[in-house]
Structure formats: C-alpha cells, structure tokens
Fold this sequence. Notes:
Residues 317-418 form the UDP-glucose/GDP-mannose dehydrogenase C-terminal domain. The active site is at 263 (nucleophile). The protein has 441 residues and is of the alpha/beta class. Helix content is 44%, strand content 13%. The protein is built from 18 helices and 14 strands. The strands form 3 sheets. The protein has a 6-stranded parallel sheet with strand order 3-2-1-4-5-6, sandwiched between helices. It is elongated, with a radius of gyration of 24 Å. The protein starts with a strand and ends in a 12-residue tail after the last strand.
Amino acid sequence: xxxxxxxxxxxxxxxxxxxxxxxxxxxxxxxxxxxxxxxxxxxxxxxxxxxxxxxxxxxxxxxxxxxxxxxxxxxxxxxxxxxxxxxxxxxxxxxxxxxxxxxxxxxxxxxxxxxxxxxxxxxxxxxxxxxxxxxxxxxxxxxxxxxxxxxxxxxxxxxxxxxxxxxxxxxxxxxxxxxxxxxxxxxxxxxxxxxxxxxxxxxxxxxxxxxxxxxxxxxxxxxxxxxxxxxxxxxxxxxxxxxxxxxxxxxxxxxxxxxxxxxxxxxxxxxxxxxxxxxxxxxxxxxxxxxxxxxxxxxxxxxxxxxxxxxxxxxxxxxxxxxxxxxxxxxxxxxxxxxxxxxxxxxxxxxxxxxxxxxxxxxxxxxxxxxxxxxxxxxxxxxxxxxxxxxxxxxxxxxxxxxxxxxxxxxxxxxxxxxxxxxxxxxxxxxxxxxxxxxxx
Length: 441
C-alpha cells in the first residue's frame, strides 16, 4: 500500500515513519523546504526517542521518503493523511483549521483516482464534513471518501504508542474507506488491537473527549494534593488508594505544577468553545481550564516561600523546562509561567534541560543556561525540579548540597522522598506530602 502524509511535524513524522515500519510506502510532504532537506539528510527536527533510527531504517529500505511536491506524493496513493497543525486561534480559543482546509484544497487539485482523505490532525466535530465539502467544490469529479483517524500519541513514547496502541479509532460512513483503513492497520489487527469503527463526528469527538478527561484527572489530583497539604495527608497514598479501583485506574494521578504540552491545553479549550457554540457547555472542563491556568501561575509563589519569602537578588537553579521528560516540546510548559514570575520577583534563573534548551532559549529570555544539572545548582539559593527527567532522579545529594548556597529544594514533581532529603540536610518541599523534619536552610 502507499500513502501520502501531509505535515512532518510531530504527528505526521511519527505516524509516517511507523506506517513505513508496517511495510507501507510512505511519502511525507511539507511546505518547509528547509525541513524537507534536513529530513533527506537524516536530520530529525523533533526530539523523540528512537525516531531517528526508525526513520533511517525505513528510508534505507525505500519505504519512506520526503518531498515538497504533493502531486508526486499522491501518485498511486491509497490514502492521503492530513497531519498539519491546529493551534489555538488567537482571540477566541477555537482551533485554527486554516492549515487543514488549505491542505484539503491542495488534495482536491491532485485527486486523479480513488483515495481516502484521512484527518489525522486533532480537529473539532464537523471538520471532516467541511473537508469533504471543500474537496467537492474544488474538484466535483473527484473519487474519494473522508475518514477521521485521531492520534493518541504521547510525546516521549510515541513510537510505542503507535506500534502497540490501546485502540485505533476510525470514523467513516464508507465501507470502501473502512476497508482501506483496515488494510493499513492490519499489523495491529493481527496482534488483536481493538479497531473502533465509528461515524466521522464520533471519531472527532472521541479524541477531544479522551484528552479532556485525562486533563480533568490531572487537575483533580492536583487539587487533592493541595487539600492533602492542609490536612496532613499524603497525596501519593491517596492516589494509590483510589488508583487501585479498576473504575478509576492509577494513570494520570501524579500531582505537579499543571499540565502543558501540545494537546491538553489546546484541546480542552477547543472543546469548551465548541460546546459553548452549540449550546451544550461543559462546566467541568471549563473549570479544569481555569484551575490549570491558575495553578501554573501560583507555582512561583511556592518557590518564593521556600526561599524565605523573597527571591530578590537570589539565584534559583531550575532543573527541566520542557512540559514533560523525553521531549523538547515547550508548548504551554509550566516553566513559561514560573520562570518569568521568578525573574519579575528579582531572581536570576540558572537552568538546565537535557533536550529543551534550544527551544526554551527563544521563549525564556534572560535565563542563564547551564551545561548540566550540577551547573544549574552552583551558587544557587534554591533548586527547583520542574521536569522529572530521569537524570534528575538520582542526583548526588552531597555534591548538590555543596554546590548550593543554601540547601533548599522545591520538588514540583515529587521525585524525592521527604525523609531522604531531610537526612541529607535539605530544606525540602514537595506537592501534597507532609514535610519531614529538615535541616535549617
């Protein structure tokens, strides 16, 4: 089989490479000439563990290629996937579908045989019908069907999520299109992956419903963590106690500074706007959005409090700035609220991130970037863990204490055990856990 993948961003590149691993011939298309040239040279524009090897292997096998020419990519294709960005539209919170609709027009101009047009981008309900209408207006004689095939890829583990997914959702009313999609996903069918066939609108809503539910779950445990701090309970024990209930599950019950990334902030807001537009508001998700925004802004206050009530003239060492580990993605990362707030309060911020510093440097002016974790600690009045990269989980605490001006740690990811930190002589604070007796800062 052959497919064209429009867009070489996170979703398009990972999906295209994974399909090629299934034995499908994939041509990835992008308008960015520089990006295509980099990909042809084997240079991967995003950080995703294992992606460079996956791309190189399938390019060498002749199953994966890159081009600027959509007509070339669509020649003989069984399906063409739209995997372009749908960022939040400035001003109203709706998803910006201009890239999706522009892709639909270009696809229409190049349709010369039966092709399934697949929305892989995260799009609001009704987008598939509009894509179909655009193609029919542009090319009335085109032989095609539109399908929705939302992605459920987690950054940092996207390849595994594609190869061994919990489910594959396909939305289409055409049996002809469904057959093409089944053949594309046959390797997953053979390992008994659930294939959920639905109407177009149902598939579109399923993606948003999944992400907003997970965002609500994160927000719930964050609020429970705040309550734990007030009553002397331990949020990790609470999370385990409720997570063992099969109706609830243990995933996404880890407290932190608030969710970020390319999906949850954008998708929760887009679903809120869609629901308001059709007169069926989602009060729970509206509250989730509000609480998460407030939480990220409030985190700087925790750090200031740990530093004695003021960071004026002090240095704060920050470990991790990306929204999660194993990615270089800075979109809606909590650090984008926390770091500027510390700087406004008079602090110098010295930071290190294993993968995100190049992108973060554009978004966080004035930060002093260190070469490693210990470089961020040297001479600092406080160290803050913002992102739980594995290399921050086993710091040499004696070395860290010696480098710091004051042995103060604010652990916003609950990486360390309070008792261990107290024994190491740190004034340690975390989220939703009782403080252990600690050394004076």
